[in-house]
Amino acid sequence: MGSGQLIVVKLGGSVLAALTPAWWDDAAAVAARNRTVFVHGWSRPLEDWQRQRGMEPVFRTNQHGHVSRFTDHAVIEGIRSVASQLRELISRNLSGRGVSTRCVDAADEGLIEALIRPQRWWAGGELRRLDNLVGNITRVDTAMLAGILGKGQVPVVTPLARSAGHRYANVNADRATAAIAAHAGAADLVMVTDVPGVLVNGVLAPVLHAAELPGLRDQFSGGMRKKVRAAAEAIGSGTGRAVIGCATLTELLAGQAGTRVVA
Fold first, then answer.
1. Whole-model pTM over 0.85
2. pLDDT at 1
3. Within 10 Å of residue 32's Cβ, how many Cβ atoms?
4. Which of the residues in the chain have pLDDT under 50?
5. Structural domain includes residue 93
6. Start-to-end C-alpha separation, the chain
7. Structural domains of the chain, count
8. Is residue 1 a part of any domain in this protein?
9. According to the model, what pLDDT value does residue 221 have?
10. Which DSSP symbol is given to 111?
11. Which domain holds residue 21?
């Protein structure tokens, strides 16, 4: 497809089903002009999948106070089941508009590697050693991405990771997307969400500088906190700009919508 600058796009699992044909028309046009990578999340579709099977999502806090989805082999299988459908949805919408795509399970194909550290997690009112298949990203195979892009294809990536001793590790999709953008030298990271952008004191912030984000930490919660952290990580590693919001890619990249995070 496009030969212009590299753009990495994260599509939140909660917004995928709601994206309109006009949104996909615009996305295909952007991909026709630029080298583009699409990465998807899965949180809400996974929770729907679990509840349909009588399973409740479980989140645990580790000894450092970080909250994470508790991930065992059953959760991994749920992610893989949901992710295969989400990849197909993205690929179908793009290929139907003339975009050549390549679906990539980042764990199966070794695109992302992660380290699962032994940790203690709060359970039953005490800290316990639990096998939680959640890892921190240690490597992104940029040569693999370059090979796909060099063939004129658009990678559609499920951001699971491979880990020593484990075929699959769950990694945060926002931070995985930021790692892909940083390692691949992307000019832009775009996070398409179900909210207009980042709110500061209840007001949409059109622009935020990475250096001011630590002082605004208490303004963010839940998924937005992770998105802001991921944006800062990408900017700190050389990505030119990160944009968070719900609009077309053209509008987000042009600064007509969302929040831009810059150096």
1. yes
2. 59
3. 15
4. none
5. yes
6. 29
7. 1
8. no
9. 76
10. S
11. 6-262
pLDDT at 3: 64
Whose tokens are 């050389």? That residue is 238
Q: What is the CATH number of the domain that holds 116?
A: 3.40.1160.10
Tokens of residue 256, six digits = 């007509």
Q: Looking at residue 41, what is its pLDDT? A: 94
8 Å CB contact between 229 and 236: no
Of 164, 163, 188, 161, which is closest to residue 83 (Cα–Cα)?
161
In this structure, are strands 59-61 and 67-69 parallel, antiparallel, or unpaired? antiparallel
pLDDT recorded at residue 118: 86
Q: CB neighbours of 92 closer than 8 A, spacing ≥ 6? A: none
Instruction: Name 251's Cβ contacts closer than 8 Å, sequence gap at least 6.
Output: 257, 258
Judged by phi (left if over 0) then psi (alpha if -120 to 50, else beta), residue 32 lies in alpha
Residue 183: inside a domain, yes or no?
Answer: yes
Tell the burial category of 100 from Cβ atoms under 10 Å away from its Cβ (0-12, 13-18, 19+): middle
Is 232 a member of any domain? yes
Cα-based distances in Å from 229 to 138, 157, 202, 214 = 17, 20, 19, 9
Alpha helices, DSSP H, located in the chain: 21-33, 43-52, 73-95, 142-150, 173-184, 222-236, 249-253
